[in-house]
Fold:
Amino acid sequence: MHVSISCLCRGDLVTVTRYLVQKTGWFLLAFSVALILNFFLPRMIPGNPVDTIVSQMGQGGADSQSMQRVYENYMEEFGLNEPLHQQFFTYVGNVLRGDLGTSFSLYPASVNSLIGNALPWTLALQIPAILIGWIIGNLLGALAAYKGGWFDRVGFTGSLLLSSLPYYSFAILLLYVVAVRWDIRQLVADTAPVGYQPGRGRSSRTR
Structure:
């Protein structure tokens, strides 16, 4: 009996180990494919992001020599003057170190700082939404299974209707109800334009 239990435990351990190895392999494969696509797809687009930055700066009337020096500095800063394979290895090394580089569209802000600024708001929205959805969903599911009948049918139909509604449309409706109709002042103050006063609509901007 002791031998059979030991063999059973050893078999379960082998199964779990094989499962973890397979999941880790798939994760590494997906991560590698994502890195490759994230690197090569933007470079397949015609043009150069440095050209866009320099052209926007050149609208102020700078001379061509100054713009050429700016162009060369940007090319060196972003590493675009290096061979493609060297750019790729530099990119992978930076990602593994947690350095996501500088934003092209919001230069000279770093991508890490942009993510850091947006992450608290994302967590503040996602964590309560996940917890509330999990709690309400389990309570309603248990109640529908216990009562059955019309409550179960109405709950099932309502859940289908809500799940088929696009998230962005539902988010706009909730934002209107919570932030406008219910007049949650702090939420409005954090997201509204300058000069907006809750409950009074959009006022003129401050002078």
About this structure: Residues 54 and 60 are 11 Å apart (CA to CA).
